[in-house]
Design goal:
By secondary structure, the chain is mainly alpha-helical. The protein has 2 domains: 104 residues, Tyrosine recombinase, N-terminal domain (DNA polymerase, domain 1); 179 residues, Intergrase catalytic core (hpI Integrase, Chain A). Helices cover 60% and strands 4% of the residues. A 3-stranded antiparallel β-sheet has the order 1-2-3. A hairpin with a 5-residue loop joins strand 2 and strand 3. Helix 2 packs across helix 4. The longest helix has 21 residues. The protein starts with a helix and ends with a helix.
């Protein structure tokens, strides 16, 4: 099985062009699975793995306290591996064909309301160079729904100022185009014109958003900024950079956007990943109905 795993990773890297961090996370998940199969169930042949073995493995890692997102990633890694085995005719039947455990264990993403989002976006202001930059970063994050890793990796060439679009390099080195919106556009333009030249400190870099030393932001550095402004806004719930992405999708669907369009903007390869936000929208509709309907 280890040899098959090596061939699968080579396939992902060479033929599919999967990003290195994705390859590493899938590698951890699949090696953990094979260790379970070989040591706990004493199975040496991949053809002997049954749906019951898969369920037992998923149940074990769930009981060990694995987070819902990690559960779903583990299942995605297994699905990809077994699709490859089918494609190569190493197996004739997929033991994961009827397993939908991800839906059972999937945790709904945390979102905030439009009003709460506005209070956070109003916090930085525009009185200092850092404030202008932070406003631009927060507005762009909410306007586009990009991941924090995608935000901090933006370059000057990532923005098409003529038509108001971002060119984003997402997971698996897949490029997508996302509209910016007028408010985020104006904030980003002001940052580039007024703040960025001061932050560069005579350095030469094409990174769009710079820290106070003229270098690229870290995920942790931007995380602290978001958490700080959420607290300053008086929000009692936890707000992180990814909350902006979740709220972006939820607010678009609440406003009537179609699921396929939201999927494209988020960069999801599978629409089932985007469908989780429809659950949030339904919950929101129930809340509004109960609050405002005379018989709610």
């Amino acid at each position: 099985m280890q040899e098959l795993l090596t061939k699968y990773f080579n396939y992902l890297l060479i033929e599919r062009g999967v990003a290195q961090n994705t390859l590493e996370s899938y590698g951890r998940d699949l090696r953990r699975f094979i260790l379970f199969v070989e040591e706990n169930r004493k199975i040496a042949d991949v053809k002997e793995v049954t749906p019951e073995v898969i369920v037992e493995y998923l149940t074990q890692i769930r009981d060990e306290g694995l987070a819902a997102n990690s559960m779903n990633r583990s299942l995605a890694a297994l699905r990809g591996f077994y699709k490859y085995l089918l494609r190569e005719k190493i197996i004739i039947q997929n033991p994961l064909a009827n397993i939908e455990l991800a839906k059972v264990w999937m945790k709904l993403p945390d979102t905030i309301s439009k009003e709460e989002m506005k209070t956070i976006l109003d916090q930085p202001g525009t009185q200092t160079v850092a404030a202008i930059r932070n406003t631009a970063m927060l507005e762009l994050l909410y306007a586009t729904g990009i991941r924090v890793s995608e935000l901090i990796n933006l370059t000057m060439n990532s923005v098409n100022w003529q038509v108001g679009f971002l060119i984003v390099m997402g997971k698996g080195s897949k490029e997508r185009i996302v509209p910016i919106g007028k408010i985020a556009y104006d904030c980003a333009r002001r940052y580039v014109d007024e703040a960025r030249p001061q932050l560069m400190q005579k350095k030469s870099t094409d990174v769009l958003f710079l820290n106070r030393f003229g270098g690229k932001f870290t995920r942790q550095g931007f995380w602290k900024i978001v958490v700080g402004y959420a607290r300053k806004a008086g929000l009692r719930k936890n707000v992180y950079p990814h909350t902006f992405r979740h709220s972006f999708a939820s607010h678009l669907l609440e406003g009537g956007a179609d699921l396929r369009t939201v999927q494209v903007m988020l960069g999801h390869s599978d629409i089932s990943t985007t469908q989780i936000y429809t659950h949030i929208t339904r919950e929101r509709l129930k809340e509004v109905h109960q609050k405002y309907h005379p018989r709610g």
